[in-house]
Amino acid sequence: MNAKNKQKENLREYESLRNEIISLEEQQRNVWIYMYVIFSTLFALGLQWSPYLFLVNYIVLIPFQCVINSCHRAIQRISTYIMVFFEDCNSSFNWESLQISEEYLDYYEKRNNGITDFIRKSGATHLGFITTGFFCVKILIHNYNHNIFEINVTDICLILLSILLFFVLLKINIDADKNYYQEQEKMIRKYKERIEKS
Fold it and tell me: What is the pTM of this model?
């Protein structure tokens, strides 16, 4: 295979990988939208009918956050592959390398400190916090009758379950975002070392 055909083949592979990243980003956005729509519906039903419906939100929030995290990891894996096999060899490809450069990360941190960035970074955690907060308050108000506070064991267990589910969701989100760029750089170094050895 001559150099020109090899270059065309590499360009097609690069474009295919970039399209895969774009597709995963679109999937991520769609999952976000579905998560918010279903959350809002269940939350409204919980306010209107029964506070126990607030707990159903966790059946949506936890799996949806896992799907979002999975898309994020897949994007990171493809991005790393592009950096190692395309951008190191070709100075005209720099998009993925830009994303982890110190200059870009400094700019990104300064630029993205608003409410939308908080919501994006927190994933479903803030929705879980709202769910647990409203559930606990509604249950406590429901069990307060005529200056007498009566709460049964089931409600206590459900409050504890709600708090536990919130911390599970928080852990899922923290683990997904922990050291994202440092992990990517470490992965690139290991990849390059393995290639050099072979």
Answer: 0.78
